[in-house]
Write a structure and sequence with these properties.
Three copies of one chain form a homotrimer. Chain A is built from eleven helices and nine strands. The radius of gyration of chain A is 16 Å and the shape is globular. The first copy, chain A, is of the alpha/beta class.
Chain lengths: 266, 266, 266
């Protein structure tokens, strides 16, 4: 399926018009907030993970997202089946290699999935650096490295998978190996709320159903940046940020995204 | 155990007086919000799923609920054991066949559980139509069909299982195959919050511990309709609706349900 | 590693300064709220459960917590591997034997883990009484027994495991078998929100990374008591309590804990 480049504003309009069915294989922590994120933004989430149906469902979904946050062998089987099926029918899929450097088992799972060449790879700087073979000082799920330090690694990985790499942090970076875009906005409270990054991965999948991988990653980041900034202005802590962010995701309009240009190319 | 027909108001009083222990085998997305829904309403949830204990626990629980949202083989084993044990001891149980038409594996699981004849079957119109062998245009977890279109299918299924079928949507419908009740209320924000339907299934189970299946389904729907309408009046989006709905579930009194008659028979 | 006794105030300072990486093997209901609790308080949660990596991760985590709320055989394997690895490297770990009396399978899992001698054992009065071989009137996850009735059982268990036992309820009690501390505060809304006890278990683990087991349990309870009391003053129900509690966890300062002495020794 040929997709068109769309601005964050036009991509949001398309997302809401089409409400693409998005299969999310994500971790137990993120399940609820990721589904609510997609519903608030305008997409249609479906959490379908087991190998007995993950491939079959990937053939009817318009996008697939895979996150290894709380993986186990049966889940990795389901992830591989979904990614393989998505590849066979040309459905875009997103990989989120959460803390893949934290154990040999996790590293192997990430390598196996990366070899299936995701349409979009999303991680924090530490995850992207480590995937490209670089050094990281990170321990667990935190990013200990700055986003910009990961640009060369992101470019390299994008060329290797023939797809798009998104590195998220205080500033976000998206590259297809040649072009680079950065996105600004958000709130310092975002890392204090669990699984927002995982939810973003799912949202990138939903956007990849309506526009090109590069513009899907950018559109998801622009919506998160805008909604995060709004919620951050009124939140009194991580608890209130959580639900105010969902309200903001639903309230942001395409015109808001046009007005608050958050994307720079260069 | 012989249960008495109770109005939504009296059923709520009984629920709060007895706080029935309700075993919920539900999906990963719904786990937290379903438990919070039952606690807010006044019941005592217990999430116990694995086959090694699901049957044993069903023998001490006062009701069991089964939802196939994020199923896998081990979970289906646990569901069958719980339903079988519930049947053996005469404990009511509720089946929620989430998106059973979305894959052959899921369809087979739903058929297997339906053959165990749940006390209450709850689904959206698309799920009920497809279970009865009818056509649906639905893809994932969304209902693409109107509730009233599912009335014949609901009646037929109710007679087949010798139980009650509840079809939920903008208007809700409950039938035992002979009688039909409709329930109105709620908020357009409810489909924008994930797993509220799954939580409703668990609440129907809790009510089935204190009244007849027909009145349990109606009472749960009436409480959801009242709490949903209250939350909908003050919510500014799906995020605020989520917690305001829980506050409303806890705040609604039996007198409120009497005053705002939401149930029609016919 | 030798840890120092710290007051709740100093322990909170240390927690925020060090943000200890805390491996939480917890139940599906608690996953999200437990991670958010640790992030709000200042720790770094990591949900890593599968036996293929739980032991390896326990060797790099600064604390491990294990909760049997929604156990199954594969998870019990992961729990045992994590506890064993934690013991080998001298990392503190906390056991939360949720409703272990509710089925033979659950009881056996709790006994197996208890035999590995957790650094801290946390439960409600019913769970602690039953673990020590006493009678309980509890059915599911609720505590049906008062905290103080469990003091002898808690002392006995503390001596048996060579660790600390925390019994939580309206008043909380911590003992190492010799000394006893009680902690007051919190809100009647806390039992109406699911998985706060499970989240507390995870927080005790995080504190055990920065101070002694006895002071870790006390510090976690003092922070919960303070944040719970604050949230309880403004909440209008269990839904609003949920997010206001997270805001309060993030807002409480060490000076607040010093000012509102909640701990009594005796």
């Amino acid at each position: 399926m040929q997709r068109t480049s769309l601005s964050p504003a036009d991509a949001l309009s398309a997302l809401r018009a089409e409400a693409p069915l998005t299969q999310c294989i994500t971790n137990y922590v993120a399940m609820n907030i990721a589904a609510n994120t997609l519903l608030a933004a305008g997409a249609a989430p479906a959490m379908v993970h087991t190998v007995e149906e993950s491939g079959a469902f990937a053939r009817i979904a318009r996008a697939v997202t895979i996150n290894i946050g709380t993986l186990s062998p049966a889940w990795v089987d389901g992830m591989r089946a979904a990614a393989t099926a998505a590849n066979e029918v040309g459905t875009p899929w997103v990989l989120d290699p959460v803390a893949h450097f934290a154990s040999p088992y996790r590293a192997e799972a990430a390598r196996t999935l990366l070899a299936l060449r995701p349409t979009i790879l999303r991680g924090n700087a530490s995850e992207i650096l480590a995937l490209a073979g670089g050094d990281t000082t990170a321990r667990g799920v935190d990013a200990a490295d700055p986003v910009m330090a990961a640009e060369p690694a992101a470019r390299q990985l994008a060329l290797e998978i023939g797809g798009v790499v998104a590195v998220t942090g205080t500033v976000d970076l998206v590259t297809d190996g040649t072009h680079v875009a950065t996105i600004t906005g958000g709130s310092p409270l975002m890392p204090r709320v669990t699984a927002l990054g995982c939810s973003l991965t799912c949202l990138m999948g939903a956007y990849a159903a309506v526009t090109t991988p590069m513009h899907a990653a950018i559109a998801a980041l622009a919506l998160f940046a805008e909604a995060g900034e709004r919620a951050g202005r009124v939140a009194e802590g991580p608890g209130s940020f959580g639900w105010q962010f969902l309200d903001a995701l639903a309230a942001v309009t395409p015109a808001d995204l046009d007005a608050n240009g958050r994307v720079s190319w260069g």
